[in-house]
Amino acid sequence: MPTKNLEKRRLVMQRSKQLGHCICDPQKPCPCDVFLEWDICPCAGERLDAPAGPVRLTTLVESAGCASKIDQATLRRVLQGLPSSDDPRVLIGMPAGDDAGVYQLDENTALVQTVDVFTPSVDDPYVFGQIAAANSLSDVYAMGGRPLTALSIIGFPVRTLPDEVMQQILRGGLDKMAEAGVAVIGGHSINDPQIKAGFAVTGLIHPQRIASNAGARPGDCLVLTKPLGTGILSFAAQIDRAPAEGVAAAAHGMAALNKRAAELMLEFNAHACTDVTGFGLMGHLAAMALASQVDVEILWDDVPLLPGVLQCAADSILPGAVERNKESSGGALAASDGLEPSALDILFDAQTSGGLLIAVSAPAAPELVARLRDEGSSEAAAIGRVIGDGSGRIFVRSDGRRMLPPPSQVGPAPRAVIAQEPASTGPTFEQARQMSGGQQSGSCCGGQGEARIRTAGEKPAVVETQQKYHDFLKSANAPGALDARTKRAVAIALSVLARCEPCVKSHVNKARDEGFSQEEIDEAAWMAISFGGSPTMMFYHETKKGDR
Questions:
Q1: Residues 231, 66: contact at Cβ < 8 Å?
Q2: I need a surface site. Which of 6, 143, 153, 311 has the fewest CB within 10 A?
Q3: Could you tell me which residues come within 8 angstroms of residue 390 by beta carbon, excluding any fewer than 6 positions away?
Q4: Which of 66, 221, 312, 503 is catalytic?
Q5: 221 an active-site residue?
Q6: To the nearest 5 percent, what fractions of the chain are helix, strand and coil?
Q7: Minimal CA–CA distance to 416: which of 540, 306, 289?
Q8: Residues 6+ apart with CB under 8 A from 176
Q9: What are phi and psi of 197, to 5 degrees?
Q10: How many CA atoms lie within 13 A of 15 on its CB side?
Q11: What are the backbone dihedrals phi and psi of residue 273, each rounded to the nearest 5 degrees, phi first?
Q12: Which tens digit of pLDDT belongs to each residue from 209-265?
């Protein structure tokens, strides 16, 4: 911990107290909770030591990857009525809803520009940086453009996580841009409690060679260059239910450039293209079909999927982005023949750095797919066809070749990692404040996903023992044969029976956040009282009084 400048602290805190608000966070008084608990004044430049060791990024964000983006339906409402450019040199602008904007410079040259930012979809910082770069470049590739320069954008919780984590994110992005032959010439950073990274990319394109999403023709074959399931597997990893094989395959695919696929698309004179990202296959296909004024058909059994995705769907491991995408683009679904609802949900999964969806003439499609597989896109497949002129409807059918497996009867899968098993990252200031009863170490019951604070002077053996105990608590609290809601009710009952006031408060607060009613909380508590008798009842009544 750095040496404290008490004179600077005094002057800074004097300003805060005079204002009646913390000058760093006006929502807090002065002295703030961090100062009271840790004798640290963040406003005076003091800070807790950043935790050492690897950091598991996906546990630090609410929604992983492109699932963190605003859904299509909300965007349509917000953008409705906003002015758009009437410059005749804007060949493709905001109203088109395409992958990137195109601005004509002369009869042979146009700029193609895009920007893309999202939260981590993997735990490894370097790999996340690679994925952020590959994803940002895909919008230019999807238009048939050649990216030239990029500006990096990063949001990072400085003074909470080690600087090395941010450096590794940036290094991964720079290395991937170098692989693509793109020069990163600057960037912008912001202090943000949730990590985000991406790039603004500028490229060149011939005005007559733009592969927009509006050119699909009746009879075209639809080719997808990467398998689906990155959003499902990222969510499964967040809750420790992801198969290691699937997570590794997803990371590899997300970090892969769509550069060669875009070059082949142009070589085979594709009629239309879009990249499949946050709106899912159905969302991006619906936009292409509507812009092209055609109806399309997808054969579910031919859609490539990442390992483990079918089992996740069978086990209902589906992130909230699936529901948001269904609300946004579900209206385009005209019919789904022979499909279970969970199977259809995979088509709405929000993809991060997904593949290109290409509309190409039917005679050219088999050779295009063969070339794609030979030159790096090993999972590329023809997944459907444009069935005729129309209003953007999507028909999904199955011929029965691929079925969902039976639901899993086992508990949580072992945690899947990309490189090495990350250690506990330690708390943020806000997490430290919200620990059960303000304790400075794990409470007697811990709780799923709860952070552990390493105090000064702890011996390595003690730290290792505490970490193992924390991991055990996390595993015990994770959903398995019993779902998360049932385990929360059990945790409330056991906390009351143990008469652990911090434990009761912690689990009751979490239960409320998860949608429990007071009646449900009381019923769980009375299960404990029925075993513990009058002393347990008196303890619970006193705890409830203190919670009001």
A1: yes
A2: 6
A3: 289, 293, 294, 295
A4: 66
A5: no
A6: 45, 15, 40
A7: 306
A8: 129, 130, 133, 134, 137, 255, 257
A9: -155, 155
A10: 12
A11: -160, 150
A12: 888 888 999 999 999 999 999 999 988 888 888 899 999 999 999 999 999 999 999
